[in-house]
């Protein structure tokens, strides 16, 4: 057995909610690292972070930061990826980008390892990590698509605030305490930090994630529509999404209606999901067991349950899909791709 | 103008979450009351409640409680309605029942005043108030059904804990504080008080409201399916529901996909909803305005927004419907029916 090659790895956005999870996973998975660079905006540079018992100082990410870097994991927002990923590629790094910057670029593979890991081999320097709400959807639906074909998907999401970053988590907890104490709530971040109107998230449901597009859908909804088609590699699938933020810290839930191209048996579906990689079937109505955000939090899998036939359409199926949006929905999916590149790639 | 006749009114379940709202509305609306009887279980009997500045002592509801009662509003659970409503009818009362006991009874009208108030005239002593999640759905869809016809409805709900009663509200608030304080959570009520398994509702989304049926759907989901067809008076409509409890105190939200029988114009839909009785259109993506549970709480209307064409199906429309589940979803709908009987009925 040959010795494992070690890689120079950079984490861009190291102080963010996803960056923190990536660093934790690199440590936990004992990723083959030669040198680790933790990068951030100028604002967060200087932060001290621990990795395998050693203290690292976070540095400001600049084009020159990527000299010698072989694998760069980006999760510092689309603008940062757009500005810096090309420099990282120039320096010879493979970039795994967790933002929306390159996902729909035809030259960039959009990868969920359980679905289309082979696409990694087509990369031209950048591999895109899909949106959190898309990853758990396609991970659960892929085995069903292979068996029955998918005609349409209608999904309504119940998304955790951690998807909007650390400051949104702080905001939910702060607002919640204010409401419990009978104090005034002064929303500051959600639904979209860069937009003028803010809404209370504590004890509320906000049907806006990211900015509105001209067609009346939000960007988050359109991400789900476009990315699902790209990853499932079938532009003919009709996808409709309604994306909603709810007062949950970790774990996105999704109510999904899927219509297959062919007839199906419910028992078959259960067997397929029970055997699917990265998927855990939790489907026991009699025992009141179904996926829950609180139980998915901190776990890498995608949890699926509430499987039931549509009452009107013979090829329709309803299901409930839950996963930790920071893990499978972001950091873990990215680290899975990095592991493939570093360890498994043919 | 003739003098308004006054009625002997009984409120059964007077100490519950809905009963409290009914009493508040009877006062606020200056309902033509001769004598008011506040009734409850033996456990809550003796409670003192105020009505128009006068103190009332809640009495235990028995078959004899309804002597002389002309209008009885029931919201003390299905078993109480089943046991006592027939006695109330025998004593000559018209019962407006807010439970599931008689809703699907072919002899009982199931009424949402904005949709089918004329059905009240067919009653044989009992008029059923629909399930909260159904009421707001059909109130918003009725004007669209009239214009275009409805082929199918796929709805995912985001339901407030107050729908499960006062103790569920207490549970959410108590659990939330426990989580914020870093203490252990010990679920006691939700998802279903009478079932053995309990789940944390604080910072979670529970895809179970009421008991599971043999077909894998919950009773709440089947209520939405059956009641929607009955109220919209069209058994051919395909209805699919996924009902989810979220950490909200007041106000149910619904993500709704509807497919019309005929082509439609989005502007037309907006105009129809803007003019619909009891409906408020809140649909301004540019201004980040859409219905929110926090803004619907305490208001009698049904709020509708996020209107957008389905991207794949020309006759498909997505919308977001929010209403206060204790008001339009329960107490206000019941008092509207009572007002029709007492004041408007031809």
From TrEMBL, chains A, B:
The active site is at 132 (acyl-thioester intermediate), 252 (proton acceptor). GO terms for molecular function: aspartate-semialdehyde dehydrogenase activity; NAD binding; NADP binding; protein dimerization activity. The keyword Oxidoreductase applies. It catalyses: L-aspartate 4-semialdehyde + phosphate + NADP(+) = 4-phospho-L-aspartate + NADPH + H(+). Keywords: Amino-acid biosynthesis, Diaminopimelate biosynthesis, Lysine biosynthesis, Methionine biosynthesis, NADP, Oxidoreductase, Threonine biosynthesis. Belongs to the aspartate-semialdehyde dehydrogenase family. NCBIfam families: asd_B, PRK14874.1. PANTHER family: ASPARTATE-SEMIALDEHYDE DEHYDROGENASE (PTHR46278:SF2), DEHYDROGENASE, PUTATIVE-RELATED (PTHR46278). This is Aspartate-semialdehyde dehydrogenase. The lineage of its organism: Bacteria, Bacillati, Bacillota, Bacilli, Bacillales.
